[in-house]
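Example 3.2
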Amino acid sequence: MTKRELDESVNYLIGKGFDAPEVGIVLGTGLGRLANELEDPIEAHYNHIPYFPLATVEFHSGKLIFGTFQGKKVVVMQGRFHRYEGYDLVDVTYPIRVMHQLGIKKLFISNASGAINTDLKKGNMMLIEDHINLQGGSPLAFKNVAEFGSRFTDMSGPYDAEMRKKLLSIAAKENIILKEGVYAAVVGPQLETKAEYRMLKILGADAVGMSTVPEVIVANHLSLPVVAVSVITDECDPENLAPVDINEIIAIAEKTEPNMVRLFKELIKQL
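Structure, written as C-alpha cells:
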C-alpha cells in the first residue's frame, strides 16, 4: 500500500460524488439492509475502485455507498473483506483508510458472531468492549506503515468509551438487549472445534467471529473513534454443539438487523 494508491482510490470516489462523509459504517454478514435507508445514495462497486480488493463471499455484495442517514453524510461498506478470502490484513483494512481519507470522523462496525458465553443467546446483540486477536498477524505489520501513523499503536482502549456509553443508553430506552463482552477474531473460514471453543472460553472470549479486529486496529492507528456491535447468530457451547447451518446464521442476522439499525440510527442522531 502506498499513499499514491490511496489517493487514487479516494480521488475516484470524490469524482463519483462521495462528498466529505462524517461517519463510516461497516456491515457484516446478513446485515446489509441498513444501506437501503440512505437518502440520495451513490454507489461504487469495489471492482471499479482503484486498488480496492474484491469481495469473494457470495452473501457480501461488494459496494461502497455514500448518502445521507439521519441528517448526516455517511459512507457504508456493504460487504467486507476477510483474511479467509486469501487477502492479507493490509488489504482487508484498505477500505478503512480510504473512508478515513474521505473525511469520516467516526466508525461503526457490525458483525455476526458465535456465542462462547452461554448467557448470550441467538438474536442477542453484544457491544464489543475489548478483543482478542487470533488471526496470526497485524494490519500494521508492513514496511512503510510509519508513513500512515505510529507503528506502535496503543490498544489500551480500542473501542470508544463515549459511543459505547451512548449505545447502552439507547438500548435501554429502546428495550433492546445489548450486552457487553470480549470478541475473539479467528481466521476461519471453518467453524471451531469443541476443543477450540473450550480454549476461547478459557482465554476470556464472550463471542467469536472472523472479522472486525483488523479494522479496529487500523481505526486506532488513524486515531479514528470506533464502536462495534456483534449480532449473536449461533451458540457455541462445546458440551451441546450442533452442526452450524450458514443459512440459519444469515437468517438470524437478518431478523436481528432492525434492532442494530435502530441503535446506529439513534447514535448517529446524537453525534
